[in-house]
Write a sequence for this structure.
């Protein structure tokens, strides 16, 4: 068992208290490789922002859990010893799919885990989430649960009513599981194709009415938004201009995320935007410099572009800059 506190991570409890009080959201950025992690750390050091670095099941498979855990430790060392920055850092398991995955992450030194029981029945979701919470709390690790299915507005198979989180059940869920934060479904979805829009059709609004109802049922309680990339047109065009083919991509407008961050939403998850900016930059560098073959020549500029994107998010979307 590796104690996350000895590595220099914190759990999300105090982070969320402050975020709630001050009206910002803690950014939760996914990483799979060194360049992403460096970009996140430098962006948060430059903006003095708290951060949740998160690892998905896919990331664990791609990079190896031991590798990721030591990369995260290395990142903390770099931040504290070299950048001399003190902003709080949580290491979080994103979309944990079983008790064993959560337990394994806690044993590896994660300070926070998500148990995603959203595809289970309400009763089974409660049972699994409660089991993870009971285990995690023994080690002062915080747990994020999920209620409602993040299917997205474009999904015409699942009906809207079953997709969004039901405000009537949140209180019961939190009371029975004692989960520390709750991911809800109010219209966001994962990936680069969040809304199927007809030409000229405006972006739909997130269901702020549901968020308000949930906030009333759970006062002072931290809410989490997944699927919160904005899919900037600039990067879609760059990708397409340099040989890519992403058609009809769309994301959540930044103003809506800013509005959410000012409310009970204390954690906002972003992965896709980072993927897009890295891909756009790599494509651009290679297209303009066909003679390049050293990965540092294209991953370096991609890392820099990602850092700039995250700085902008911390300042203008999360409102977390200066809150470290
Ligand atoms: O929630 C999904 C995250 O973007 C992680 O995606 O499972 O492809 O690593 P992944
Ligand atoms: P995006 O795909 O919108 O970046 O969402 C990421 C996410 O929710 C990770 O859990
Ligand atoms: Zn997610």
């Amino acid at each position: 068992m590796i104690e996350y506190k000895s590595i220099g991570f914190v759990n999300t409890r105090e982070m969320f208290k402050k975020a709630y009080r001050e009206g910002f959201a803690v950014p939760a950025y996914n990483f799979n490789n060194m360049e992403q992690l460096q970009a996140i750390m430098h962006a948060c050091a430059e903006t003095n922002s708290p951060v949740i670095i998160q690892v998905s099941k896919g990331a664990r498979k791609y990079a190896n859990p031991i590798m990721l855990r030591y990369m995260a430790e290395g990142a903390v060392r770099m931040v504290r010893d070299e950048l001399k920055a003190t902003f709080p850092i949580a290491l979080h398991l994103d979309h944990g799919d079983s008790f064993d995955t959560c337990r394994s992450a806690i044993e590896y030194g994660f300070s926070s885990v998500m148990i995603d029981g959203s595809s289970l029945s309400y009763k089974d979701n409660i049972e699994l989430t409660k089991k993870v919470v009971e285990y995690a709390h023994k080690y002062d690790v915080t747990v994020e649960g999920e209620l409602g299915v993040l299917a997205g507005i474009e999904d015409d198979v699942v009906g809207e009513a079953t997709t969004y989180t039901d405000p009537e059940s949140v209180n019961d869920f939190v009371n029975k599981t004692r989960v520390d934060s709750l991911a809800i479904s109010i219209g966001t979805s994962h990936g680069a194709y969040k809304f199927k829009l007809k030409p000229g059709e405006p972006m739909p609004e997130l269901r702020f009415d549901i968020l308000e109802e949930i906030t009333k049922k759970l006062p002072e309680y931290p809410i989490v938004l997944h699927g919160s990339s904005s899919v900037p047109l600039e990067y879609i065009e760059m990708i397409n201009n340099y040989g890519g083919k992403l058609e009809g991509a769309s994301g959540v407008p930044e103003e809506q995320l800013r509005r959410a961050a000012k409310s009970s939403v204390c954690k906002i998850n972003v992965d896709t935007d980072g993927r897009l900016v890295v891909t756009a930059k790599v494509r651009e560098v290679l297209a303009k410099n066909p003679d390049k073959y050293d990965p540092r020549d294209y991953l370096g500029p991609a890392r820099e572009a990602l850092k700039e994107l995250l700085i902008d998010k911390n300042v203008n979307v999360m409102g977390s800059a200066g809150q470290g």
Notes: The domain at 4-315 is CATH 3.20.20.70 (TIM Barrel). Confidence is low (pLDDT under 50) at residues 152-162. The longest strand covers residues 89-96.
